[in-house]
Amino acid sequence: MTIQKYGIREHVALLTLVPLLVMAISFGTFFLLDGSGKLDRDLLTRGQLIARQLAASSEYGVFSNNQPFLKALAANALQQPDVKSVVILNAYSRILVASGDISNTVASQTGEENNIEIRPAKALPAPAPDLLTRVNSKVPVFDQQNELMLYQPIISTQIALDDAETKPDVQQVGAVIIEISKLQTGKLKSRLWWFTILATVAFLLITLYLVRIGSLRIIDPISKLSEAIKAIGNGNLQTRISESSNIHELSTLTNGINQMTADLQNERAILQNRIDEATEQLRNLAFYDTLTRLPNRRLMTDRLTQSLAACKRSGRFGALMFIDMDKFKLLNDQFGHAVGDLFLIEVANRIRRCVREMDTVARFGGDEFVVILSELSNNPGESNNQANIIAEKIRTVLEDPYNLIYQQEGHPEVFLKHRCTSSIGVVLFQDNDDQDDILKYADSAMYQAKQDDLKRIHFYEHAGS
User: Fold this and answer.
1) Nearest alpha carbon to residue 92 among 142, 132, 137, 44
2) What is the average per-residue pLDDT within 251-269?
3) CB under 8 Å to 439, separation ≥6 — which residues?
4) What pLDDT is recorded for position 131?
C-alpha cells in the first residue's frame, strides 16, 4: 500500500489553518458564553440587591400600613435601571402598593383597602396564602423570556429588651415582588455576539495573511535545501547551496550543509577520538574510587607490583601503610552517609598532601586507606625512620578538626566540627616479599596500633628481626 505524500506547502497550510480555526472558534465561543453569562448574573445580582434593600426599607411601612411611605419606596425602586414594576404585599398576601408597568406580571388580586386590580401573569404562580411558610426558603426567581421576577420576604427585626428575655422568633410581615426587564440585557448580548463574530473574522483574516507571507519566505529555501541534501545523499559531495536567506535559522542551516560536505571525511577521526575518550573514562571507573578519586584496590595492587620491581632494580626498601579511621562508623550512623562521604573525601585529600608525587595513596575500602612509599633508603633503619616521619605526619594531620558542611533536603545547611584519630600499621618490604603477605602484615600492625591508645603507629616486626 502506497502512502500518499504531500509537499511542505500542503502541510504548512493544514497545520496552521486547522488549529487556527479551532482556536478562533473556541476562544470566540468561550468569550461569548462567558460574557452572556456575566450579563445574566449581573442582572440577577442587581435585582436581588434592589429587592433586599426594598424589603428591608418596607418593614416599617408594612407594619404600620403606611401606603404613602411604601409608594415612595416603590417609586425610588422604579428609578433603578431595568426595574419594570414593584409590588409590596402584607402578611396576608394582599397588595399594599403596586407601581410601574405590572401587566402580565403578578397574579390577579384585589386589595380591600386600596382597591387595586392587576391582570394575572402566566409564568408567575399566585402568592401562597400563608407567607410565613416562606421565611426559611430561598428567594424565588421566576425567569421568563423578557422579564426576571424576584420574590423577597419582608422579615421582622424584633430584638430582645434584655439578656433574660428569650430571643423572639423570626416573622415574615410581608413580601416584595420586583419585575426586571431583560430587554436591555438582550441588546447587550446581541452587541456582544456581533462584536465576537467580527473580531474572530478579523483575527482569522489578518493571521492568514501573515501566515501566507511568512510561509512563502520559508518554504522556497527549504525546498532548495531538500534538493541539496538529496544530492549529497546520492554521493555528490561537491554540492553547494549558493542562495542565501535573510532568515537566521535557514541561513545557519545552509551554511551547515555546505560545511557538512567538507567535514564528512573528518568524521571518522572525530568518532575515533570519542571512542578513545570513552575508553579512558571506563578505565578510570575500573581503577579509581568514584568518591575520593584515589586509586582503588585493583590499581593499588598494580602499583605495589611496580614498587616491588623497583626495589629489585635499586636494592632500596619500600613501605606500605595501612590506615584506619577510628570510630568512623559512629559518625556515619549519627549523621548519615552523606556526612560520612564528606569526611572520607577530606581524609583522602589530607593523606595525599603528606606524601611525595611518586608515592601512591589508595582507598582500600570503607574508611581504610593504603599508602605505598617507594624508593626509600637501602638501609632498613633509615628506611624505617623515613616511613615513621611520613606516618607521624599523616597521623597528626588526620587528628586536626574536620569542618564539614552538609545539607539535608528541605533543611538549611549545617556546620559540623568533628575530630577523629587514626590507627596506622606500617611494614617495610623488598623485592623478595609477597604482596599478600605485605598486606597481611600491614593489616596486623594496624590492629596492634588500635590497641595502643598512646601510640597510634605500629611497625610490623618480622620474625627473627
Assistant:
1) 132
2) 74
3) 320, 322, 370
4) 35
Q: Scanning the structure block, which residue is given the C-alpha cell 425602586?
A: 77
Please name the helix (run of DSSP H) or strand (run of DSSP E) that holds residue 435, with its range, or none. helix 435-451
235 phi and psi angles, rounded to 5 deg: 105, 0
Report yes or no: 371 and 320 within 8 Å, Cβ to Cβ.
yes
Highest mean pLDDT among 30-39, 123-132, 378-387, 446-455: 378-387
Q: Is the pLDDT of residue 124 over 70?
A: no
pLDDT at residue 10, rounded to an integer: 67
pLDDT, position 4: 60
**Residue 346 clears pLDDT 90, i.e. is over it:** yes
- Give the separation between CA 340 and CA 329, rounded to whole angstroms: 9
pTM given for the model = 0.45
Determine the Cα–Cα distance for residues 312 and 375; give it in Å rounded to an integer: 11
Judge contact between 407 and 425, C-beta under 8 A.
no
Render 253-289 in DSSP notation, one character per residue: HHHHHHHHHHHGGGHHHHHHHHHHHHHHHHHHHHHB-
C-alpha cell read off for 41: 448574573
Element (H, E) at 141: strand 141-143
**H/E stretch holding 224:** helix 183-233
Cα–Cα distance for residue pair 460/446, rounded to 1 Å: 9
The whole-angstrom separation of Cα 35 and Cα 48 is 20
Instruction: Kindly state the DSSP code that residue 350 receives in the 8-state scheme.
Output: H
Q: Which residues pair with 322 in a beta bridge?
A: 370, 425
Reported as a single tens digit per residue, the pLDDT across 325-334 is 988 888 888 8
DSSP-based three-state secondary structure for 47: helix
Binned at pLDDT 50, 70 and 90, residue 125 comes out as very low
Site of grid cell 623485592: 431
CA distances (Å), 246 to each of 8, 133, 254, in order? 20, 80, 11
Q: Which is nearest to 107 in space by CA: 91, 115, 95? A: 95
Identify which of 433, 358, 419, 344 has the alpha carbon closest to the alpha carbon of residue 390. 358
Which cell is 153 given?
420576604
**Predicted pLDDT at 463:** 59
- 84: pLDDT confidence band, cut at 50, 70 and 90? confident
DSSP per residue, 389-432? HHHHHHHHHHHS-EEEEE--TTS--EEEEE---EEEEEEEE-TT
Q: Is the dihedral of CA 378, 379, 380, 384 positive or negative?
A: negative
Q: Please, what is the Cα angle at 242 between 239 and 244, to 5 degrees?
A: 135
Which residue has cell 480555526?
Answer: 21
Select from 131, 90, 85 the least CA-distant residue to 114: 90
